[in-house]
From TrEMBL:
The lineage of its organism: Bacteria, Pseudomonadati, Pseudomonadota, Alphaproteobacteria, Hyphomicrobiales. InterPro entries: Peptidoglycan-bd-like, PGBD-like_sf, PGBDSf. It comes from the Bacteria. It comes from Bradyrhizobium lablabi. This is Lysozyme family protein. Residues 204-256 form the Peptidoglycan binding-like domain.
Length: 267
């Protein structure tokens, strides 16, 4: 089993050193432009899951070649039951609904992530695809194809071995590099402090509190911090000055919720 902290450090090092493979730079331009052009659509999923739109955009390229008729989970048509891993998903009413299911309900449950640093994102993308390469101590083509960090090796079938062939599809890292040149708003912050609690709350308390403060639609109080709760929390954060609308119940957000409850009529 691969230690995720070690893998993240390795991905940070690879990112710092990575260069696009000579001769392949032009190949990145069209998918990067398409990803940036569809930013608003990806952001609509981000707003409902808390998953960075950049993660959504590049996984959409890898999983389904940016085809909005296919699922973000594995590239199967989202209007049918999926037959590839993850199997048995769907049918869904839209690309967005299928994407939310993939990010919230399917491993590695990307919607639970709070680390959107470049190392955190690349490591989550690698987990999203599968850990075969990391377990073999090899760079993942899902991330590094089209850069000098990758040479050869590709899993050709779900859960199959790594075959000694070159992945011709471009990797997520090079795509992100190219997107950053097209959209200066794309930046990456530092990782969360090691050991710092990402969420300091009781989910049942949070759901009851957001309902008391007028969450629309009202939340099902089930003690699970899922997509609906994250969306309601983000809406609350947007309504308050000084809070970052990231859907994370950090100390400042919890304190603001408590203040709002205390100030509510009848409190």
């Amino acid at each position: 089993m691969t230690d995720l902290a070690t893998l993240k450090t390795l991905n940070e090092q690879r990112w710092a050193n990575a260069k696009l493979t000579p001769g392949r730079t032009p190949e990145f331009k069209a998918p990067a432009q398409k990803a940036v052009t569809n930013k608003a659509r990806y952001q609509s999923i981000e707003s409902r899951t808390g998953v960075s739109w950049i993660f959504i955009a590049v996984s959409h390229y890898r999983e389904s070649s940016q085809n909005f008729n296919k699922s973000l989970a594995q590239g199967d048509p989202w209007n049918k039951v999926s037959t590839h891993v993850p199997t048995g998903r769907g049918p869904f009413a839209s690309f967005e609904d299928a994407a939310i299911d993939a990010l919230v309900n399917c491993a590695p449950h990307a919607a639970r992530s709070t680390d959107w640093s470049i190392g955190g994102m690349l490591t989550l993308l690698e987990r999203y695809n599968g850990m075969s390469y990391a377990n073999a101590n090899r760079p993942s083509p899902y991330i590094w194809s089209g850069t000098d960090q990758y040479k050869i090796g590709k899993v050709l079938v779900d859960h199959g071995p790594i075959e000694e062939v070159v992945d011709k599809q471009l990797g997520c890292a090079g795509l992100i590099m190219t997107m950053m040149k097209l959209d200066p708003a794309i930046t990456f912050g530092a990782s969360p402090a090691p050991g710092a609690p990402a969420q300091t709350f009781d989910a049942t308390w949070l759901q009851n509190s957001l309902n008391a403060l007028g969450a629309t639609p009202p939340l099902l109080v089930d003690g699970t911090f899922g997509a609906a709760t994250r969306t309601a929390l983000r809406a609350f954060q947007k309504s308050k000055d000084g809070l970052t609308a990231n859907g994370i119940a950090n100390v400042d957000t919890v304190a603001t919720i408590k203040d709002a409850l205390a100030a509510a009529p009848g409190a």
